Amino acid sequence: MPTESYQPSDRRPIASRNRKIFQTLAAILADSHVSPNFISVAGMVMGVAAGLLLAATNFVSTLWVERSLWVAAAAGIQLRLLANMLDGMVALASHKASPLGELYNEIPDRVSDAAIMIGAGYAAGGSPALGYIAACVALLTAYIRAVGKAAGASDLFVGPMAKPQRMFVLTLGALLMAALPTDWRPAWGDLHVSFPGAILALIIVGGLITAGRRLNLIVRHLRGANS
Predict the structure, then answer these.
(1) 18, 104, 157, 185: most buried, per Cβ within 10 A?
(2) Which residues lie closer than 8 Å to 158 by C-beta, 6 or more apart?
(3) In the prediction, which pLDDT does 15 show?
């Protein structure tokens, strides 16, 4: 049950939280009695929608429609991130932070990650195999962070391919696909993999490095705790 004294033990460091516009928005939502858990679920809906929009780019034949889908997907990814930031801010501002709220914060995040990665895999210029692998790697990094948190380790939001970085490169890739002339899009291999596929490969490599760094932090913490 939410209590005023509860404070989340593990919050991702996000510089945007200090911006006046987002603090004002969080205050307005809190004063309007908008549930932080509702914001978390809304963020998941935006994430799933972004994944569907990415996949849809591979099933349209009109260029302007495809470009519109890329832009809409980029917007969906960013709205997902905005919701991910605001849910915690609203929870604290309205004194509704709770262990249940942390569950609402985590589970929708994992659904969003998987939907966006898999959607990018099926997108024009993507690779379904890379999409599924990237989704698994994203879930792995989150799982390692959860295990480390349970073990009492800290600073487990390290990259180089944590959630904000994953979403940044995917947003950039979507905007590139929307803006560049089709002749400027690379087409590697028989499957004509372009920026989305290359970005998924980057996320996989960066995600594995991230998982390794987080594991190292957990091992150091456990060794220090037992020494």
Answers:
(1) 104
(2) 210, 213, 214, 217
(3) 73
For the domain spanning 15-226, the CATH number is 1.20.120.1760
Nearest to 12 by CA among 130, 160, 162, 179: 162
Indicate the residue type of 172.
Answer: L
DSSP, collapsed to helix, strand or coil, labels residue 161 as coil
User: pTM to 2 decimals?
Assistant: 0.90
Omega cis (within 30) before 160: yes
Q: Which pLDDT score, from 0 to 100, does residue 80 have?
A: 96
Radius of gyration of the chain (CA): 19
Domain ranges of the chain: 15-226
Q: Is 227 helix (H, G, I), strand (E, B) or coil?
A: coil
Q: Extract the tokens encoding 82.
A: 């905005």
Q: What are the average pLDDT values for consecutive 10-residue runs of the chain, which has 227 residues?
A: 55 78 92 92 97 97 96 98 92 79 86 97 95 97 91 86 95 95 83 89 97 94 79
Question: How far apart are the C-alpha atoms of 96 and 182, rounded to whole Å?
Answer: 49
pLDDT at 123: 97
Phi, psi of 188 (to 5 degrees): -90, 135
